[in-house]
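About this split. The held-out portion is used to measure sequence recovery: a designer receives only the structure tokens and must propose an amino acid at every position. Recovery is the fraction of positions where the proposal matches the reference. Here is one held-out target exactly as it appears in the evaluation file.
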């Protein structure tokens, strides 16, 4: 601990991102990246900007991309907020919309960055236990709160909450901001965006890192009422007025323009998820229902930590969490067909199948 640190920094327990190993021939199934690259239109768009204009600042509100997202979701541009990845967007959401006198509510098994943001911004929170099957019970959130947030589909479980339940949640908490973190929504869920114009307290956060294959470009966005978006803009412009550069803006616009590529790659991931689910079920794994580009599994005989280590020794990395309720589970990203087959073949050998 450095004598030069502030009291806040000395007390922080930072978020630990998924490992990005610099190892040759690794099968990396631990951070839920899309196994397929970006649309070819993205590369063309980026190449078209590799000129002296990079000396200029980008538009502060990424206007072209903002308009593109608004049109895609049938919203107004002033209902869209952009940031440097959805984590930055979420940081502004926590600081600008969820820092209240009453506690923020989110599931006990959820995105592990949420409590870190609470610690960073001094937000009181309560973790609401998921049911035994890891589903979210809307009635559990009918208590005084300063906001509600959860991923949908949830991470790391993959469980999905339907729109009827989300609408029930919005109705029962009219004075609280309800944030739906839809990082994985395109792999099997129905977005809550159509509810935005019906409920002023709804904010939907998405990312281009997963279904649009642009994790390396760091593009996140939030959609909600003009009132909520204005609050986020006030925070952003007190922090960093230029969160997205020219290249990410162009890449994002190009990715949205190629709807066929987007749909095709999502369907490939969904099909692979089904195949991998069936394959692991045959190997004695319990596989949770998933609407994401990952599955959450536990084996009926072998410890999760042991399996994760054995897979690593065979050149395959998956995610193991040490949290008590889920320490016997592995989260496995859906890979390419070849990567999925390598995983299943390796597990078959390890399990003596």
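Reference sequence for scoring:
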């Amino acid at each position: 601990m450095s004598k030069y640190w502030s009291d806040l920094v000395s007390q922080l327990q930072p978020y630990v991102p998924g490992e990005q190993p610099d190892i040759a021939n690794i099968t990396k199934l631990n951070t839920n990246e899309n196994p397929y690259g970006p649309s070819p239109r993205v590369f063309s768009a980026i190449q078209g900007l590799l000129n002296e204009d990079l000396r200029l600042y980008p538009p502060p509100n990424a206007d072209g991309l903002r308009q593109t997202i608004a049109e895609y979701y049938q919203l107004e541009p002033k209902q869209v907020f952009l940031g440097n990845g959805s984590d930055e967007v979420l940081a502004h959401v926590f600081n600008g919309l969820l820092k209240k006198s009453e506690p923020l509510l989110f599931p006990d098994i959820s995105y592990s960055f949420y409590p870190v943001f609470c610690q960073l911004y001094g937000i009181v929170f309560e973790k609401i236990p998921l049911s035994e099957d890891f589903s979210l019970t809307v009635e559990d959130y009918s208590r005084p709160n300063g906001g509600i947030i959860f991923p949908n589909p949830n991470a790391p479980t993959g469980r999905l909450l339907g729109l009827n339940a989300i609408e029930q949640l919005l109705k029962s908490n009219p004075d609280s901001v309800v944030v739906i973190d839809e990082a994985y929504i395109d792999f099997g869920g129905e977005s809550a965006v159509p509810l935005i114009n019906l409920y002023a307290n709804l904010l939907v956060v998405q990312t281009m890192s997963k279904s649009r294959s642009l994790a390396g470009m760091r593009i996140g966005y939030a959609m909600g009422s003009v009132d909520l978006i204005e609050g986020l803009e006030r925070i952003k412009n007190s922090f960093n007025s230029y969160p997205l550069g020219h290249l990410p803006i162009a890449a994002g616009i190009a990715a949205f323009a190629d709807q066929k590529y987007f749909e095709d790659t999502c369907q490939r991931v969904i099909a692979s998820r089904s195949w991998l689910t069936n394959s692991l079920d045959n190997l004695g794994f319990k596989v949770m229902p998933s609407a994401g580009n990952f599955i959450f599994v536990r084996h009926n005989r072998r410890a999760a930590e042991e399996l994760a280590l054995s897979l690593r020794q065979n050149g395959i990395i998956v995610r193991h969490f040490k949290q008590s309720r889920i320490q016997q589970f592995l989260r496995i990203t859906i890979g390419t067909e070849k990567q999925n087959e390598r995983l299943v073949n390796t597990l078959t050998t390890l399990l003596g199948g």
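Annotator remark: Residues 7-37+260-350 form a domain with the Aspartate Aminotransferase, domain 1 fold (CATH 3.90.1150.10).
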